Amino acid sequence: MTSLPLPVLVVGAGPVGLTAANLLAARGVPVVLIERNATTSDEAKAISLDDESLRTLQSAGLAETVLEIVVPGTGTRYFDRKGRPLFHARGPEPYRLGYPFKNQFAQPELERALLSALRAHPGVQTAFGTELVDASEAEDGVLTTLRDVETGETREVAAAWLLACDGGRSTLRELRKIDMTGTSHTDVWLVADTLGDTHDQRYGMHHGRPERPTVIIPGRDGRCRYEFRLRPGEGAGGTRPDFELIQRLIAPYRTIGPEQVERCTNYTFNAVVADRWRDGRCILLGDAAHMMPPFAGQGLNSGFRDAANLAWKIAEVWHGRASQTLLDTYEAERRPHATALVAFSERLGRIVMTTSPGRALLRDGLVRAMLRTARGRRYLTEMRFRPRAVHEAGLVVRTGRDGEELAGRLLPQPLALVPPGLRPRRLDEVLGEGFALLGVDVPEKAWRALPQVWPFRRIDVALGERLPRPAEGRQAIADADGRLEAALAPARGRFLLIKPDRYIAAVFSADAHQQVADELARHGLAVQDPSAPA
Q1: Which of 230, 293, 415, 452 could anchor a disulfide with 345, C-beta 3.0 to 4.6 Å?
Q2: Three-state secondary structure of 431-472
Q3: Which tens digit of pLDDT belongs to each residue from 36-50?
Q4: How far is CA 165 from the centre of its chain?
Q5: Are the C-beta atoms of 389 and 304 separated by less than 8 Å?
Q6: Which of helix, strand or coil describes residue 254?
Q7: Using CA of residue 500, residue 307, residue 71, residue 364, what is the dihedral sign?
């Protein structure tokens, strides 16, 4: 293999693969992206991006580009067994992560935008009509065999790492004989993406009528997705439905002609997780690692979380700032949440999309009872029933200090006042692309007690209605609208170490800095306090 720095090979040019490739390229890592199809997809499969996914795209400089092609949504409205509104789930807080909570899009447009951005990076190669045939470990990388789909010609490509973003039928997963554990469901659903639709709602609609569970998701420019639970004998998974069936099912909502059906198929779904996500230098992301029912809208978003978690770690290792041990934290941090979302999506489908009249009656009664209490309303409307992503293992340090309940959680992205102009800016614009060390109302002597060699961006955070006061070697920010204080008040007087994917690695006081440094070193990050004994 070559002695030159090797690129990272990304297999699969769907949204997850394109996002992973963009995140790596933005961090100066050379990328080779291959895709077995001749072009990006012309089918609108995935349809919803949440606020965390848009924040991930922000870190690659792509959020504003993608906002041009999405519908800034307002969540999901649930309807009862008789078609009456039950409640509207809008998420925990508007713009908590800097973006709308749920955003509808057309996958072909998203893939074209991500591919165009990727090709603008130096050090990026793309090869469509190319498939992975083999991958074998070498001392300093992966030696792969790629095949031109049209000609059958093969060539060898050496890579530092192979990221398998090639979907539920992942070639890499098959090559490495990695099984998936879970359930393959036999329920058949019909999905139809339509044109010329008059729905103008900016939210998805889940109709819980047991005789015909239905999902409706309006999009941009007259697009609308309809999904219907089929009855026995109406269709089999993996087949194309007749137009007559589509017309009959959509008739209660609109009239439609054949030319207005952009895509349609009958499908079943899986609820499975790969038994392992990393095999040497080969790593699974997205549907290659986990597949879930569509009812929570978290399949693609889980893949984006994978990319956000892994890309910065690959970059740290590739640039020589961390050892390969750091990559062990990927599955430790991501598997528990992905597994919880798979189970949650199954459970949500059983409840919301039940075909049992008795279960639907019980569901509606329980929901209405919950809505009569403030606590119940918050639980439903703020979607507190959805599993939260919290890193209990991996690169997270528990110091036993006040505020450590924030450790492992995703840092919100409120607006912050940034001197000298004090113009409000999204918090991530201040944090930068690497680790950030926030001192939340900490005194100067606490800053002086920290090792000066720590290679983290240092930021003073002033809570309350106070002006930020920059100090030498540190950025300063202040609260713009009360949301920064709401997020960080539990850590007042403490430091927060923020990972590049915006999850909180540690909450600690100055006298615990060596414990933090030791944990970072244990996970492959070379952060050494020169004053500590050898």
Answers
A1: 293
A2: HCCCCEEEEECCCHHHHHCCCCCCCCEEEEEECCCCCCCCEC
A3: 999 999 887 899 999
A4: 13
A5: no
A6: coil
A7: negative
Beta carbons of 25 and 1 less than 8 angstroms apart: no
Integer Cα distance of 80 and 361 in angstroms: 9
Letter string b/e over residues 60-87, b meaning 16 or more CB atoms within 10 A of that residue's CB: bebbeebbebbbebbbbbbbbbeeeebb
Order of strands across the sheet that contains 48-50: 48-50, 102-105, 70-73
* Three-class DSSP category at 135: strand
Per the CB < 8 A criterion, the answer to whether 383 and 92 are in contact is: yes
Tokens for 187, please give them.
Answer: 């329920």
By the 10 Å C-beta count (0-12 exposed, 13-18 middle, 19+ buried), 31 is classed as: buried
- Say which amino acid occupies 340: A
Residue type, 217: I
What is the C-alpha separation between 101 and 98, in angstroms, rounded? 9
Residue 475's Cβ-side half-sphere holds a number of Cα atoms within 13 Å equal to 19
Are 118 and 13 in contact by the 8 Å Cβ rule? The answer is: no
pLDDT score at 528:
58
Q: Which residue type does 365 have?
A: G
The alpha carbon dihedral of 500, 505, 507, 513 has a sign of: negative
For residues 411 and 501, what is the distance between their CA atoms, to the nearest angstrom?
9
Single pTM value for the model: 0.95
99 CB neighbour count, 10 Å cutoff:
25
pLDDT in tens, 317-356: 999 999 999 999 999 999 999 999 999 999 999 999 999 9
* Residues constituting the chain: 534
Asked if 418 and 477 touch (Cβ cutoff 8 Å), the reply is yes
Q: How far apart (Å, rounded) are the C-alpha atoms in residues 502 and 107?
A: 26
Distance CA 517, CA 505 (A): 11
pLDDT-based confidence at residue 101 (cuts at 50, 70, 90): very high
Residue with tokens 């978003």: 301
pLDDT digits (tens, 9 = 90+) for 452-467: 889 899 999 999 999 9
How many whole angstroms separate alpha carbon 514 and alpha carbon 509? 10
Q: What is the rounded distance in angstroms from the CA atom of residue 21 to the CA atom of residue 59?
A: 13
Angle made by CA atoms 299, 304, 310, in degrees to the nearest 5: 130
Q: Which of 463, 492, 485, 491 is nearest to 476 (CA)?
A: 463
Of 268, 308, 309, nearest to 291 by C-alpha is 268
Element (H, E) at 248: helix 243-250
DSSP track, 130-156: EEEEEEEEETTEEEEEEEETTT--EEE
